[in-house]
């Protein structure tokens, strides 16, 4: 018995030591987080306000921690106008409704044989839907109902999208996903998870932003699909309530162009939801990691706004919000484009697709800084030169 007691005592001491170590490390990262300041880029005074909202959010109708009312209240506190609810396999979601001043827009996250699929904007009921149905059938059923399909967290190790044919049929792609960032941190507990947890204790929004560490695979796969057919880029909250809805909503959002969606939205929930879903599927919407700054005033000039197309030899011009510091803001280009020496012009070099984003140097995991995506529009298709050009 004495040996058992001694063994149990040593186990308790080891566990207590481990807990103390983890708490100490969290405290180590909590201190600098209390000094992290946001936004990095000051607001662009006088720019038209864009309607903003959360994309891919779960409630207690599936595996979320908060009721629709709780989600709406968190969105209101974070300054959002709408939330696209996407509870798992919720094939008969409630109609659009205003809750505490926030528009709740129905959608669904469908579990298919190849991965998870976001569907929204259906004009007719989804027919014959069931869990784990073939991915191609799910995509076609959503399109037949007048809806838009988006591949959810398509390249993460947990529930990636595994079917190439149906992937090319979907209309959108979650290029940046808060859930994917979190799962990446879980695989890197010392370098990512503990810094984020410690930062979250002192500054929840900074804790979420510490998780934002883009990997190359999503962008590479996205560009492959975009070369096959036009693709919409989405940033997904994939919010379940942990981290808190409000902290995630304050960190990023989807923004809808004022040319398409008035601010404020119409009081009629059905009409307002129709405007929101039309703007999300138009290609004119953009994502912003709003903790770094609001994107109002951003324009990618030289692009056909309806078709998001330009031609080889054209030069796109990135108009940045306000007057950002050149040492903290930079333009990133992937695909068939080359960044000019001025840092804001993009020459289109060949047919295909070009992806242009704005990145910001924000507060790092400790007292340093890290480059993170800030403004993320959908890519531009680059057409060959026209006749006589």
From TrEMBL:
SUPFAM superfamilies recorded: PHP domain-like
InterPro entries: PHP_domain, Pol/His_phosphatase_N, Pol/histidinol_Pase-like
Record domain Polymerase/histidinol phosphatase N-terminal: where: 53-114
Organism: Myxococcus llanfairpwllgwyngyllgogerychwyrndrobwllllantysiliogogogochensis
GO molecular function terms listed in the Swiss-Prot or TrEMBL record: 5'-3' DNA exonuclease activity; 5'-3' RNA exonuclease activity
Record protein name field: PHP domain-containing protein
């Amino acid at each position: 018995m004495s040996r058992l007691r001694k063994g149990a005592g040593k186990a308790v001491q080891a566990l207590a030591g481990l807990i103390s170590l983890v708490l100490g490390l969290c405290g180590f990262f909590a201190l600098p987080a209390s000094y992290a300041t946001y936004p990095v880029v000051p607001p662009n005074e006088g720019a038209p306000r864009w309607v903003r909202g959360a994309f891919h959010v779960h409630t207690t109708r599936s595996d979320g921690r908060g009721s629709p009312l709780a989600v709406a209240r968190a969105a209101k506190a974070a300054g959002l106008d709408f939330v696209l609810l996407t509870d798992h396999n919720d094939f008969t979601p409630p109609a659009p409704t205003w809750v505490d001043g926030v528009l709740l827009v129905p959608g669904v996250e469908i579990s298919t044989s190849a991965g998870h699929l976001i569907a929204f904007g259906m004009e007719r009921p989804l027919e014959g839907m069931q869990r784990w149905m073939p991915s191609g059938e799910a995509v076609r059923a959503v399109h037949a109902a007048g809806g838009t399909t988006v591949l959810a967290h398509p390249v993460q190790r947990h529930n990636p999208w595994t079917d190439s044919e149906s992937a090319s049929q979907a209309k959108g792609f979650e290029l940046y996903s808060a859930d994917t960032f979190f799962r990446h941190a879980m695989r890197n507990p010392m370098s990512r998870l503990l810094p984020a947890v410690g930062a979250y204790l002192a500054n929840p929004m900074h804790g979420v932003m510490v998780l934002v560490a883009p990997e190359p695979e999503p962008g590479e796969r996205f560009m492959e699909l975009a070369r096959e057919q036009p693709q919409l880029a989405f940033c997904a909250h994939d919010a379940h309530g942990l981290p808190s809805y409000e902290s995630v909503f304050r960190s990023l959002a989807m923004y809808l162009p004022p040319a398409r969606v008035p601010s404020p939205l119409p009081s009629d929930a059905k009409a307002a939801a129709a405007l929101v879903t039309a703007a999300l599927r138009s290609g004119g919407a953009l994502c912003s990691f709003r903790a770094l700054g609001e994107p109002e005033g951003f324009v990618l000039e030289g692009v056909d706004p309806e078709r998001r197309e330009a031609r080889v030899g054209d030069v796109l011009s990135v108009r940045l919000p306000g007057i950002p510091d050149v040492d903290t803001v930079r333009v990133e280009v992937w695909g068939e484009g080359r960044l000019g020496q001025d840092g804001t012009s993009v020459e289109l070099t060949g047919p295909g697709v070009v992806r242009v984003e704005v990145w910001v140097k924000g507060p790092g995991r400790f007292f340093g800084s890290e480059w993170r995506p800030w403004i993320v529009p959908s890519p531009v298709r680059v057409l060959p030169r026209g006749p006589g050009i």
